[in-house]
Amino acid sequence: ERLVDEAGYxxxxxxxxxxxxxxxxxxAALQALGAAGIPPRAKLLIHxxxxxxxxxxxxxxxxxxxxxxxxxxxxxxxxxxxxxxxxLGDRKVVRSVPDRANMFRAQTPQAFRFETIRRxxxxxxxxxxxxxxxxxxxxVDYLPDVPVAIVAGSRTNMKITTRDDLPQAEQISLxxxxxxxxxxxxxxxxxxxxx
Length: 195
Known about the structure:
By secondary structure, the chain is α+β, with helices and mostly antiparallel strands. The protein has 2 domains: 2-159, Alpha-Beta Complex (Spore Coat Polysaccharide Biosynthesis Protein SpsA, Chain A); 160-195. The protein is built from 6 helices and 6 strands. It has a 4-stranded mixed β-sheet with strand order 1-5-2-6. The chain has a two-stranded antiparallel ribbon with strand order 3-4. The model has no long low-confidence stretch (mean pLDDT 94).
């Protein structure tokens, strides 16, 4: 709360304590939003703080997708071939090779109508084996008839989880700063030409 006050984030309405796992944090947020009287059809976006380079177009795409779908997730098409594996003794072995055209890397934000994600979590909470790492998976697993739309992500919407991710994050940050500086320079030149 001190950080919000000091940094002056006027859009922050409440701060909710997170849980031990991602699903615990989402469940706490859903409970707090329900208690605050959020409308059932409200659009809810859930984003990882460890993805600082999300593009506005992905956020806008999620909001727009909820006009047609109950759920949507930002995802980036995989350029790598993916392998589904199984255990064989002490090794992993390839069980199948899915069609790459249908493989995406999940990113955030992930977007839901409030009543949809709340219902999925209610059902999931009854499952003792419930330990998802992703909110979209909760909808896919517990509300299988609800289609989840894909919203275009980007390679720069990376997840920073280890020190090994920092060089790539620094490079992306530098690219963004350069792009913003160029855009600002073009705006200034356009203003000068108009005078």
